[in-house]
Please model this.
Amino acid sequence: MNHHPTFGLQYMLDEDIPWEQVEPGVKRKVLSFDERIMMVKVAFDNGGIGALHHHHHTQISYVAEGVFEISIGAEKKILRQGDGYYIPPNEVHGALCLEAGILVDVFSPIREDFIQDK
Model:
């Protein structure tokens, strides 16, 4: 894990961290992490979908740009730049991008699946 280029990165310069395409219309970059916490930037094209899923991690996300329909459990809300949301462990959630934008996700513990060698 600590061989990943952003492990323990103290200053995250956006231009130095490459994007990873994860779905059509969705890309991400792992900004920094250690053994306990991880921050990830996720860019969505208009109409991009973060499919419904769940994981054992606690997640807090911030809408840095754009407009999203966020689903958490049975509830959906429209969130805009400056808004955020909390997802408890194992809660089903997803995102639909209504206007191209960026989410900043924080996970605890870290999403090891995001940093495994592919």
Observations:
- The two ends are 13 Å apart (CA to CA).
